[in-house]
Amino acid sequence: MRQPLGTLILLCMILCGAFPCHAGGLPHNECERQFAFAESLFEESDFYRAIGEYKRLIFLCPGSETLCEKAFFKIGVSYFKAQQWQKAREALDDFLTRFPGSPMVGEALYLKGMSEKHLSLHEEALNTFAHISETQTGEVREKAIYQSALILVDMQQWKRAGEMFAQIPAGSVFYDSAVVFSAGLENIGNLPHKSPAVAGSLAAVLPGAGHLYTERPRDALVAFLLNGLFIWSAIELFEDDKYVTGGIVTFLELGWYTGNIYSAVGSAHKFNKRTRETFLQGLRDRAHLSYFYDRSTASNGIMLSMSF
Q: Each residue of 68-115: pLDDT tens digit?
């Protein structure tokens, strides 16, 4: 009885080896076709269908580790391309957890950081980019430093941003752009500035004067005429012994007068913000970066164009 049992076990082992798809999913050539189909959808920018096909590959081909690794990565890239920043962040986190030794880790971290930047999670994005700069080399490290500097610009931390731009080495595709930003940030303190305190004080002395100071002549004229009309009406009413009506008009004028002061202060803040944003946008326009996806390396590339 032992001999037939051993023969049966051997036969089962041979049969299992002859049909690997039962143990590890589809045959490798079918898995490659599945991956190629998902890639074709990705190339057509049909990202949501591509995600479905990448997931199908992961389910059907668990034994194709290299293809599964690429599929997990491309799911994150697809969400990123579709501008689904939170889902992209989660998918890329999943990839990084599953494949910590992958050659695509640097690019995955970068896309995760960019997703956090789009979500306005500035501190999280800075931490992700800092991790890249500590663990990666080459272009992915340089663009992580560059994006960190841009985040610091958005956070109005001019000094830290300048120091970050200075870390980009000469010869980098980002170097000329970093020089433009660094030079510009050194002059940001020289931009035209309106003091909110001065604007409010002028508005308190003469309604409309604060708006005129912040270069809003129409608002200045409206504030002057409106407050002047209410003050004149109140005086006339009191002179005619119409104290109740005069008191009501005076109460209303106090509201307009106070609003005139607050509006002048707000106008100063808006002037400073508008001036700063126009200046920074000018820097961005002078050092314009455009992004592209390189299918051959499964990475995002950057093209730099300068204007003077």
A: 999 999 999 999 999 999 999 999 999 999 999 999 999 999 999 999
Residue 305 falls inside a structural domain: no
62 and 143 fall within a common domain? no
What domain count does the chain have? 3
Burial of 158 (0-12, 13-18, 19+ CB in 10 A): middle
Residue 152 lies in a domain: yes
Contact of 75 with 55, CB cutoff 8 Å: yes
- Name the nearest CA neighbour of 35 among 71, 65, 64: 71
Average pLDDT rounded to a whole number, residues 109-127: 96
- Name the residue among 25, 37, 42 with its Cα closest to residue 76: 42
List, as own/partner pairs, every contact residues 131-138 make where C-beta atoms lie below 8 angstroms and the sequence separation is at least 24, other chains included. 132/106, 133/167, 135/106, 136/105, 136/106, 136/109
Report how far residue 264's alpha carbon sits from residue 207's, in angstroms, rounded to the nearest whole number. 9
Phi and psi angles of residue 44, each rounded to the nearest 5 degrees, phi first: -85, 5
Predicted TM-score of the model (pTM) = 0.71
Domain co-membership, 84 together with 154: no
